[in-house]
Amino acid sequence: MPHYLIAQSELPEEREARRKRAGQSSGETYAATLAQMQPGIDTTIASPADADTPVFSAERLASFDAVFLTGSPMHVYDDGPEVDRQLDFMRAVFAAGVPSFGSCAGLQIAVAAAGGQVRKMPERMEAGIARRISATEAGRDHPLLAGRPPSWDAPAIHGDEVLELPPGATLLASNAVTRVQAAEIRYDRGIFWGVQYHPELALREIAIALAAQADDLVEAGLADRKSDVTTRAADIDALHDTPDSRALHWQLGIDGEFAEERLRRREIGNFLANLSALREG
Predict the structure, then answer these.
(1) Cα torsion at 270, 275, 276, 281 (round to 10°)?
(2) Which residues form the Glutamine amidotransferase domain (predicted)?
(3) Beta carbons within 8 Å of 130's beta carbon, 6+ residues apart
């Protein structure tokens, strides 16, 4: 049975804050999603940014079938021991040759570890729904995006973005807000597939995250009032319970690629389906 390592870059206080809001840390969300997709798997959750987390040896990392990197509030362009520990961990994953997948900050961590650049988004955040993501020419035939239509929407909430991919990386998808929405990175002995959006999250978690960041969204100019954010979050929360609602599809301007859990998780499913090929590399 597969055994996956889930690396969450949230710090302890951030994990507890997320548990209070959404009931789970980001690593626990990933573990639950993977268990739903592959019942019976083993998962280990680690927090490499924490000062008291033991360093993973190359042999220990190689014992896992894959590594997953979660989203978090971490800014990888900040100087500090937490960021250094997280980047050192990711470089060790690349060196061990273990296939890895990450979303949001997980993508940014892999980019920075391999020599790329991440920045604070200069104009605004992308929050709630990442609109009209489209595969690049390289992405159209890439197995990470297998089954995606020419353009799709996805759950997203981030204020940082990839400025420059590292050498050995391939841009797979973009939209008008964030150029790097999906990428493959080949570095050292490893292969990483990642997305800026959140295929692992339930829609209710996106709704909770939106409501928690209402002040930031107003400040960023994405909403005029906190009540506007509350309304949008309530609609996304309702979609969690009634994904087939035609009224909510119309109100939110989305289709099944966003509303249906199975379709929303395509990239994770594609990664899992290609693990054997990725290990051979």
Answers:
(1) 110
(2) 60-205
(3) 153, 154, 155, 156, 175, 177, 178, 181, 196, 197
Phi (first) and psi of residue 132, to 5 degrees: 50, 50
Structure tokens that stand for 33 in this block: 């999603």
CATH number of 3-201+264-280: 3.40.50.880
Q: What is the pLDDT of residues 27-68, one digit of tens each?
A: 999 999 999 999 999 999 999 999 999 999 999 999 999 999
Find how far residue 184's CA is from the centre of its chain. 14
What's the pTM?
Answer: 0.96
The residues that are catalytic are: 104, 198, 200
Helix axis angle, 26-37 relative to 12-22, nearest 10°? Answer: 60
Write down the domain spans for the chain.
Answer: 3-201+264-280, 203-258
